[in-house]
Amino acid sequence: MLSLFSNPTFRAVYIAQVISLIGAGVATVALGLMAYEIAGPGAGAVLGIALALKMLTTVGLSSFITAALESFPRRRVLVGLELTRGAVMLAFPFVTEIWQIYLLIVLLHSASAGLVPSLRATIPDILPDERDYTRALALTQLSYDMETVTSPLLALLLLSLVPLNGLFLATVCGFVASAALLASAALPAQRFTSELGVSARAARGIRLYLGTPMLKGLLALTFSAACASAMVLVNTVVLVQSSLGLEQQFTVLALTVFGCGSMTAALLIPALLERFPVRATMVAGSCICLGGLMVGPLIVSYPVLIVFWFGLGAGYSLILTPAGRLVARTAGGADRSVLFAAHFALTHACWFVAYLTAGLAGAAAGMTATFLVLAAMATGGFFVAARLWPQDRATATAAVSADRGEA
Protein backbone atom coordinates (compact mmCIF):
# COMPACT_ATOMS: atom_id res chain seq x y z
CA MET A 1 0.00 0.00 0.00
CA LEU A 2 2.87 2.37 0.72
CA SER A 3 3.78 2.33 -2.97
CA LEU A 4 0.73 4.55 -3.57
CA PHE A 5 2.59 7.43 -1.96
CA SER A 6 4.92 7.54 -4.96
CA ASN A 7 1.99 9.21 -6.73
CA PRO A 8 2.42 12.88 -5.73
CA THR A 9 -1.24 13.77 -6.28
CA PHE A 10 -2.54 10.94 -4.13
CA ARG A 11 0.09 11.70 -1.50
CA ALA A 12 -1.03 15.33 -1.22
CA VAL A 13 -4.74 14.43 -1.17
CA TYR A 14 -4.26 11.68 1.42
CA ILE A 15 -2.18 13.82 3.77
CA ALA A 16 -4.72 16.63 3.39
CA GLN A 17 -7.47 14.19 4.29
CA VAL A 18 -5.62 12.96 7.38
CA ILE A 19 -4.92 16.49 8.62
CA SER A 20 -8.54 17.45 8.03
CA LEU A 21 -9.83 14.36 9.89
CA ILE A 22 -7.63 15.02 12.91
CA GLY A 23 -8.71 18.66 12.92
CA ALA A 24 -12.37 17.62 12.87
CA GLY A 25 -11.73 15.15 15.68
CA VAL A 26 -10.09 17.81 17.86
CA ALA A 27 -13.05 20.09 17.12
CA THR A 28 -15.43 17.38 18.35
CA VAL A 29 -13.61 17.21 21.67
CA ALA A 30 -13.59 20.99 21.92
CA LEU A 31 -17.30 21.15 21.13
CA GLY A 32 -18.08 18.77 23.99
CA LEU A 33 -16.06 20.89 26.42
CA MET A 34 -17.69 24.09 25.17
CA ALA A 35 -21.15 22.56 25.54
CA TYR A 36 -20.38 21.75 29.17
CA GLU A 37 -19.12 25.28 29.83
CA ILE A 38 -22.34 26.79 28.46
CA ALA A 39 -24.98 24.19 29.39
CA GLY A 40 -23.44 22.44 32.40
CA PRO A 41 -25.32 19.20 33.19
CA GLY A 42 -27.41 19.74 30.03
CA ALA A 43 -24.34 19.32 27.81
CA GLY A 44 -25.41 15.80 26.84
CA ALA A 45 -28.66 17.09 25.37
CA VAL A 46 -26.79 19.84 23.53
CA LEU A 47 -24.37 17.33 21.99
CA GLY A 48 -27.22 14.97 21.11
CA ILE A 49 -29.04 17.72 19.23
CA ALA A 50 -25.77 18.78 17.57
CA LEU A 51 -25.18 15.20 16.39
CA ALA A 52 -28.73 14.97 15.06
CA LEU A 53 -28.28 18.27 13.19
CA LYS A 54 -25.03 16.98 11.72
CA MET A 55 -26.74 13.86 10.39
CA LEU A 56 -29.81 15.68 9.10
CA THR A 57 -27.67 18.30 7.36
CA THR A 58 -25.61 15.59 5.68
CA VAL A 59 -28.63 13.54 4.61
CA GLY A 60 -30.62 16.54 3.40
CA LEU A 61 -27.97 18.62 1.66
CA SER A 62 -25.13 16.39 0.48
CA SER A 63 -26.60 15.47 -2.92
CA PHE A 64 -27.74 19.04 -3.67
CA ILE A 65 -24.50 20.76 -2.64
CA THR A 66 -22.36 18.28 -4.57
CA ALA A 67 -24.54 18.64 -7.67
CA ALA A 68 -24.41 22.44 -7.42
CA LEU A 69 -20.59 22.41 -7.34
CA GLU A 70 -19.99 19.85 -10.11
CA SER A 71 -19.61 22.41 -12.87
CA PHE A 72 -16.82 24.29 -11.07
CA PRO A 73 -13.11 23.37 -11.21
CA ARG A 74 -12.45 20.52 -8.80
CA ARG A 75 -9.46 22.10 -7.04
CA ARG A 76 -11.32 25.35 -6.46
CA VAL A 77 -14.29 23.48 -4.98
CA LEU A 78 -12.22 21.36 -2.59
CA VAL A 79 -10.04 24.23 -1.43
CA GLY A 80 -13.03 26.56 -1.05
CA LEU A 81 -15.00 24.06 1.04
CA GLU A 82 -12.04 23.35 3.29
CA LEU A 83 -11.47 27.08 3.86
CA THR A 84 -15.18 27.49 4.54
CA ARG A 85 -14.92 24.89 7.29
CA GLY A 86 -11.96 26.78 8.70
CA ALA A 87 -13.92 30.05 8.68
CA VAL A 88 -16.81 28.42 10.56
CA MET A 89 -14.45 26.98 13.17
CA LEU A 90 -12.91 30.43 13.60
CA ALA A 91 -16.29 31.64 14.88
CA PHE A 92 -16.59 29.05 17.66
CA PRO A 93 -14.43 30.91 20.22
CA PHE A 94 -16.99 33.73 20.13
CA VAL A 95 -19.99 31.51 20.93
CA THR A 96 -21.95 32.51 24.04
CA GLU A 97 -25.36 30.89 23.42
CA ILE A 98 -26.45 27.33 22.67
CA TRP A 99 -28.37 28.32 19.52
CA GLN A 100 -25.12 29.67 18.10
CA ILE A 101 -23.57 26.20 18.46
CA TYR A 102 -26.45 24.70 16.51
CA LEU A 103 -26.15 27.30 13.74
CA LEU A 104 -22.41 26.77 13.37
CA ILE A 105 -22.86 22.98 13.33
CA VAL A 106 -25.29 23.30 10.41
CA LEU A 107 -22.89 25.59 8.52
CA LEU A 108 -19.89 23.38 9.23
CA HIS A 109 -21.55 20.19 8.06
CA SER A 110 -23.11 21.88 5.05
CA ALA A 111 -19.54 22.43 3.84
CA SER A 112 -18.56 18.87 4.83
CA ALA A 113 -21.60 17.53 2.95
CA GLY A 114 -20.07 18.87 -0.26
CA LEU A 115 -16.40 18.30 0.57
CA VAL A 116 -16.37 14.63 1.56
CA PRO A 117 -18.25 13.20 -1.48
CA SER A 118 -16.30 15.43 -3.87
CA LEU A 119 -13.01 14.27 -2.35
CA ARG A 120 -14.05 10.61 -2.46
CA ALA A 121 -15.07 10.97 -6.10
CA THR A 122 -11.64 12.43 -6.89
CA ILE A 123 -9.56 9.47 -5.72
CA PRO A 124 -10.78 6.98 -8.40
CA ASP A 125 -9.73 9.53 -11.03
CA ILE A 126 -6.28 9.80 -9.42
CA LEU A 127 -5.94 5.99 -9.16
CA PRO A 128 -7.93 4.47 -12.06
CA ASP A 129 -6.51 0.97 -11.49
CA GLU A 130 -9.00 -0.90 -9.26
CA ARG A 131 -6.26 -2.63 -7.24
CA ASP A 132 -4.59 0.67 -6.45
CA TYR A 133 -7.95 2.20 -5.59
CA THR A 134 -8.73 -0.69 -3.23
CA ARG A 135 -5.43 -0.07 -1.43
CA ALA A 136 -6.31 3.61 -1.23
CA LEU A 137 -9.65 2.72 0.37
CA ALA A 138 -7.84 0.59 2.95
CA LEU A 139 -5.53 3.52 3.75
CA THR A 140 -8.54 5.82 4.03
CA GLN A 141 -10.26 3.48 6.51
CA LEU A 142 -7.01 3.34 8.49
CA SER A 143 -6.93 7.12 8.64
CA TYR A 144 -10.49 7.22 10.01
CA ASP A 145 -9.63 4.62 12.65
CA MET A 146 -6.40 6.35 13.65
CA GLU A 147 -8.28 9.64 13.97
CA THR A 148 -10.51 8.19 16.68
CA VAL A 149 -7.39 7.43 18.73
CA THR A 150 -5.19 10.37 17.79
CA SER A 151 -7.63 13.27 18.08
CA PRO A 152 -8.52 12.87 21.79
CA LEU A 153 -4.85 12.44 22.70
CA LEU A 154 -3.87 15.50 20.67
CA ALA A 155 -6.70 17.49 22.25
CA LEU A 156 -5.46 16.54 25.73
CA LEU A 157 -1.94 17.58 24.79
CA LEU A 158 -3.11 20.92 23.41
CA LEU A 159 -5.25 21.60 26.50
CA SER A 160 -2.13 21.28 28.63
CA LEU A 161 -0.59 24.10 26.59
CA VAL A 162 -3.48 26.36 25.53
CA PRO A 163 -7.02 27.24 26.74
CA LEU A 164 -10.15 25.73 25.19
CA ASN A 165 -10.32 28.30 22.40
CA GLY A 166 -6.88 27.14 21.34
CA LEU A 167 -8.41 23.83 20.23
CA PHE A 168 -10.67 25.62 17.79
CA LEU A 169 -7.75 27.66 16.46
CA ALA A 170 -5.71 24.46 16.05
CA THR A 171 -8.59 23.04 14.02
CA VAL A 172 -8.61 26.14 11.82
CA CYS A 173 -4.89 25.66 11.20
CA GLY A 174 -5.52 22.04 10.23
CA PHE A 175 -8.23 22.95 7.73
CA VAL A 176 -6.03 25.69 6.22
CA ALA A 177 -3.10 23.26 5.92
CA SER A 178 -5.39 20.74 4.23
CA ALA A 179 -6.58 23.42 1.80
CA ALA A 180 -2.97 24.35 0.99
CA LEU A 181 -2.10 20.72 0.18
CA LEU A 182 -5.16 20.38 -2.05
CA ALA A 183 -4.26 23.63 -3.80
CA SER A 184 -0.77 22.27 -4.52
CA ALA A 185 -2.01 18.96 -5.99
CA ALA A 186 -2.40 18.39 -9.72
CA LEU A 187 -5.98 17.18 -9.45
CA PRO A 188 -7.59 15.57 -12.52
CA ALA A 189 -10.31 17.61 -14.19
CA GLN A 190 -13.88 16.78 -13.30
CA ARG A 191 -15.81 15.17 -16.15
CA PHE A 192 -19.04 17.13 -16.08
CA THR A 193 -21.19 17.01 -19.21
CA SER A 194 -24.80 17.03 -17.98
CA GLU A 195 -27.17 19.86 -18.84
CA LEU A 196 -29.54 18.94 -16.01
CA GLY A 197 -30.22 21.40 -13.21
CA VAL A 198 -28.98 21.02 -9.65
CA SER A 199 -32.12 19.34 -8.30
CA ALA A 200 -32.29 17.01 -11.29
CA ARG A 201 -28.63 16.06 -10.87
CA ALA A 202 -29.09 15.40 -7.16
CA ALA A 203 -32.18 13.32 -7.85
CA ARG A 204 -30.33 11.46 -10.60
CA GLY A 205 -27.59 10.43 -8.17
CA ILE A 206 -30.11 9.04 -5.69
CA ARG A 207 -32.10 7.37 -8.48
CA LEU A 208 -28.97 5.71 -9.88
CA TYR A 209 -27.97 4.54 -6.41
CA LEU A 210 -31.35 3.12 -5.44
CA GLY A 211 -31.83 1.65 -8.91
CA THR A 212 -28.64 -0.43 -8.73
CA PRO A 213 -29.01 -3.82 -6.98
CA MET A 214 -25.36 -3.88 -5.90
CA LEU A 215 -25.61 -0.46 -4.26
CA LYS A 216 -28.93 -1.23 -2.60
CA GLY A 217 -27.22 -4.28 -1.13
CA LEU A 218 -24.30 -2.09 -0.05
CA LEU A 219 -26.70 0.27 1.72
CA ALA A 220 -28.37 -2.63 3.56
CA LEU A 221 -25.00 -4.01 4.68
CA THR A 222 -23.94 -0.52 5.77
CA PHE A 223 -27.02 -0.49 7.98
CA SER A 224 -25.72 -3.66 9.66
CA ALA A 225 -22.35 -1.98 10.22
CA ALA A 226 -24.07 1.13 11.58
CA CYS A 227 -25.97 -0.95 14.14
CA ALA A 228 -22.73 -2.49 15.41
CA SER A 229 -20.82 0.78 15.58
CA ALA A 230 -23.76 2.58 17.21
CA MET A 231 -23.80 0.03 20.04
CA VAL A 232 -20.09 0.55 20.57
CA LEU A 233 -19.92 4.33 20.27
CA VAL A 234 -23.11 5.12 22.19
CA ASN A 235 -23.14 2.49 24.92
CA THR A 236 -19.53 1.55 25.69
CA VAL A 237 -19.43 4.09 28.50
CA VAL A 238 -22.60 2.58 30.02
CA LEU A 239 -21.36 -1.00 29.73
CA VAL A 240 -17.91 -0.25 31.12
CA GLN A 241 -18.62 2.29 33.83
CA SER A 242 -22.15 1.37 34.92
CA SER A 243 -22.54 -2.35 34.21
CA LEU A 244 -18.94 -3.37 34.94
CA GLY A 245 -18.14 -0.59 37.42
CA LEU A 246 -14.79 0.38 35.88
CA GLU A 247 -13.04 3.73 35.43
CA GLN A 248 -13.00 6.13 32.45
CA GLN A 249 -9.70 4.87 31.09
CA PHE A 250 -11.25 1.45 30.49
CA THR A 251 -13.92 3.09 28.33
CA VAL A 252 -11.21 4.78 26.24
CA LEU A 253 -9.32 1.47 25.94
CA ALA A 254 -12.45 -0.36 24.78
CA LEU A 255 -13.11 2.22 22.08
CA THR A 256 -9.46 1.98 21.04
CA VAL A 257 -9.76 -1.81 20.72
CA PHE A 258 -12.79 -1.35 18.44
CA GLY A 259 -10.64 0.92 16.28
CA CYS A 260 -7.82 -1.64 16.30
CA GLY A 261 -10.22 -4.32 15.05
CA SER A 262 -11.29 -2.02 12.25
CA MET A 263 -7.68 -1.16 11.36
CA THR A 264 -6.67 -4.83 11.29
CA ALA A 265 -9.46 -5.70 8.87
CA ALA A 266 -8.69 -2.66 6.70
CA LEU A 267 -5.08 -3.82 6.36
CA LEU A 268 -6.28 -7.27 5.25
CA ILE A 269 -8.88 -6.02 2.76
CA PRO A 270 -6.59 -5.71 -0.33
CA ALA A 271 -5.36 -9.30 0.13
CA LEU A 272 -8.85 -10.60 0.87
CA LEU A 273 -10.29 -9.03 -2.27
CA GLU A 274 -7.58 -10.71 -4.33
CA ARG A 275 -8.97 -14.08 -3.19
CA PHE A 276 -12.67 -13.51 -2.51
CA PRO A 277 -15.45 -11.50 -4.20
CA VAL A 278 -16.34 -8.14 -2.69
CA ARG A 279 -19.86 -9.36 -1.94
CA ALA A 280 -18.62 -12.40 0.03
CA THR A 281 -16.20 -10.27 2.04
CA MET A 282 -18.83 -7.72 2.96
CA VAL A 283 -21.46 -10.36 3.77
CA ALA A 284 -18.92 -11.98 6.10
CA GLY A 285 -18.49 -8.60 7.81
CA SER A 286 -22.26 -8.33 8.24
CA CYS A 287 -22.41 -11.82 9.78
CA ILE A 288 -19.72 -10.81 12.27
CA CYS A 289 -21.64 -7.64 13.18
CA LEU A 290 -25.03 -9.28 13.68
CA GLY A 291 -23.48 -12.31 15.41
CA GLY A 292 -21.58 -10.09 17.84
CA LEU A 293 -24.74 -8.14 18.65
CA MET A 294 -26.78 -11.32 19.14
CA VAL A 295 -24.40 -12.73 21.74
CA GLY A 296 -23.62 -9.33 23.25
CA PRO A 297 -25.89 -9.97 26.28
CA LEU A 298 -23.38 -12.69 27.29
CA ILE A 299 -20.73 -10.06 28.07
CA VAL A 300 -20.05 -10.47 31.77
CA SER A 301 -16.47 -9.23 32.11
CA TYR A 302 -14.18 -6.63 30.62
CA PRO A 303 -11.90 -9.12 28.78
CA VAL A 304 -14.95 -10.60 27.06
CA LEU A 305 -16.13 -7.12 26.05
CA ILE A 306 -12.68 -6.36 24.60
CA VAL A 307 -12.81 -9.49 22.43
CA PHE A 308 -16.33 -8.64 21.24
CA TRP A 309 -15.40 -5.04 20.46
CA PHE A 310 -12.37 -6.12 18.41
CA GLY A 311 -14.60 -8.48 16.41
CA LEU A 312 -17.28 -5.84 15.85
CA GLY A 313 -14.59 -3.42 14.65
CA ALA A 314 -13.33 -6.01 12.17
CA GLY A 315 -16.82 -6.74 10.84
CA TYR A 316 -17.55 -3.03 10.57
CA SER A 317 -14.41 -2.46 8.49
CA LEU A 318 -15.04 -5.46 6.21
CA ILE A 319 -18.25 -3.74 5.14
CA LEU A 320 -17.15 -0.12 4.96
CA THR A 321 -13.66 -0.35 3.46
CA PRO A 322 -14.65 -1.76 0.02
CA ALA A 323 -17.75 0.47 -0.27
CA GLY A 324 -16.08 3.15 -2.37
CA ARG A 325 -14.90 0.50 -4.83
CA LEU A 326 -18.51 -0.52 -5.51
CA VAL A 327 -19.66 3.06 -6.00
CA ALA A 328 -16.74 3.84 -8.32
CA ARG A 329 -17.30 0.59 -10.25
CA THR A 330 -20.95 1.48 -10.83
CA ALA A 331 -20.55 5.12 -11.81
CA GLY A 332 -19.41 6.57 -15.08
CA GLY A 333 -17.10 9.56 -14.78
CA ALA A 334 -19.89 12.08 -15.35
CA ASP A 335 -22.06 10.60 -12.59
CA ARG A 336 -19.34 9.83 -10.05
CA SER A 337 -19.74 12.90 -7.84
CA VAL A 338 -23.52 12.71 -7.50
CA LEU A 339 -23.36 8.96 -6.89
CA PHE A 340 -20.79 9.39 -4.12
CA ALA A 341 -22.96 12.17 -2.69
CA ALA A 342 -25.99 9.86 -2.72
CA HIS A 343 -23.94 7.19 -0.96
CA PHE A 344 -22.75 9.70 1.63
CA ALA A 345 -26.27 10.95 2.33
CA LEU A 346 -28.04 7.57 2.41
CA THR A 347 -25.42 5.89 4.61
CA HIS A 348 -25.60 8.79 7.07
CA ALA A 349 -29.33 8.13 7.29
CA CYS A 350 -28.41 4.60 8.41
CA TRP A 351 -26.20 6.00 11.18
CA PHE A 352 -28.88 8.45 12.23
CA VAL A 353 -31.38 5.64 12.78
CA ALA A 354 -28.81 3.38 14.46
CA TYR A 355 -27.49 6.06 16.84
CA LEU A 356 -31.00 7.11 17.80
CA THR A 357 -32.03 3.51 18.45
CA ALA A 358 -28.91 2.70 20.46
CA GLY A 359 -29.36 5.74 22.67
CA LEU A 360 -33.11 5.55 23.24
CA ALA A 361 -33.26 1.77 23.67
CA GLY A 362 -30.32 1.83 26.06
CA ALA A 363 -31.95 4.49 28.23
CA ALA A 364 -35.42 2.93 28.18
CA ALA A 365 -34.85 -0.83 28.17
CA GLY A 366 -31.26 -1.56 29.25
CA MET A 367 -28.25 -3.05 27.52
CA THR A 368 -29.55 -6.59 26.94
CA ALA A 369 -32.62 -5.35 25.10
CA THR A 370 -30.51 -2.84 23.13
CA PHE A 371 -28.15 -5.59 21.95
CA LEU A 372 -31.10 -7.67 20.77
CA VAL A 373 -32.92 -4.77 19.08
CA LEU A 374 -29.78 -3.75 17.18
CA ALA A 375 -29.07 -7.40 16.34
CA ALA A 376 -32.55 -7.69 14.82
CA MET A 377 -31.97 -4.52 12.80
CA ALA A 378 -28.56 -5.76 11.60
CA THR A 379 -30.09 -9.12 10.66
CA GLY A 380 -32.71 -7.27 8.63
CA GLY A 381 -29.94 -5.45 6.77
CA PHE A 382 -28.22 -8.77 6.06
CA PHE A 383 -31.33 -10.40 4.60
CA VAL A 384 -32.27 -7.33 2.55
CA ALA A 385 -28.75 -7.29 1.06
CA ALA A 386 -28.89 -11.01 0.29
CA ARG A 387 -32.18 -10.49 -1.54
CA LEU A 388 -31.39 -7.27 -3.41
CA TRP A 389 -27.73 -7.80 -4.34
CA PRO A 390 -27.39 -10.63 -6.86
CA GLN A 391 -24.12 -12.50 -7.06
CA ASP A 392 -23.97 -11.98 -10.81
CA ARG A 393 -22.01 -8.76 -11.26
CA ALA A 394 -23.55 -8.15 -14.67
CA THR A 395 -26.95 -7.50 -13.14
CA ALA A 396 -25.51 -5.04 -10.66
CA THR A 397 -25.16 -2.28 -13.21
CA ALA A 398 -28.32 -2.99 -15.19
CA ALA A 399 -30.29 -0.18 -13.56
CA VAL A 400 -27.51 2.30 -14.20
CA SER A 401 -27.27 1.34 -17.86
CA ALA A 402 -31.02 1.69 -18.24
CA ASP A 403 -30.98 5.08 -16.56
CA ARG A 404 -28.22 6.30 -18.85
CA GLY A 405 -30.24 5.16 -21.80
CA GLU A 406 -33.09 7.38 -20.65
CA ALA A 407 -30.88 10.41 -20.04
UniProtKB/TrEMBL annotation:
One Pfam match: MFS_1
Superkingdom to which the source organism belongs: Bacteria
Record keywords: Cell membrane, Membrane, Transmembrane, Transmembrane helix, Transport
GO molecular function, one term: transmembrane transporter activity
Membrane topology: Multi-pass membrane protein
Cell compartment(s), UniProt: Cell membrane
Membrane-crossing residue ranges in chain numbering: 12-36, 42-65, 217-240, 252-273, 280-300, 306-326, 338-358, 364-385
Matching InterPro entries: MFS, MFS_trans_sf
Keyword Transport assigned: yes
One Gene Ontology cellular component annotation held by this UniProt entry: plasma membrane
Gene3D superfamilies for this protein: MFS general substrate transporter like domains
Protein name: MFS transporter
The organism of origin for this protein: Sinorhizobium saheli
